[in-house]
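note to self: dont lose this again. the chain is below, predicted strucutre after it. 163 aa total, dont forget to put it in the shared folder this time
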Amino acid sequence: MLLLMAQLPQIVYDPAPPPSFHTPAPEGLSLTTHQKRLLRETFARLEPASDLVAALFYLRLFDLDPSLRALFKGPLKVQGRKLMTAIKLAVISLDHARDLKLTLKLLGVRHRHYGVQADHYVTFSRAVMWTFEQSLEERFTRDAKQAWATLLAEMTRVMADTD
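---
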């Protein structure tokens, strides 16, 4: 095995990341075990209808702030799949907070490049919460709402962080 590894070409990625990525990500999410379970359960109910959930989300997002439509250059169906994949990644990564926060930080940098501003995350969170409430109906309990509100607040805080 060592001989095989020695024969592999060395891949060097030299460019240093921006200074803000040199600081370690904070550990942990402020979610209880119960909240993590609720997040997983509610997302599992949403996932089979991901395309519809995403379409509903964008209808609500643009209803709340029509100016945000200009930030989206490609087809919304593709963007919706990216959105639902990102949410799924967050749910899957609930027990790996450090990795999740690093991923979110990179995603936030990309979003700033596209023109997303910190206040847009408030509208994003409102649209997500409304969409989940409409999609899950009575299954979106008070505890589930609190779990999603907590996760979204932490996700958007990390993504909007410019340090």
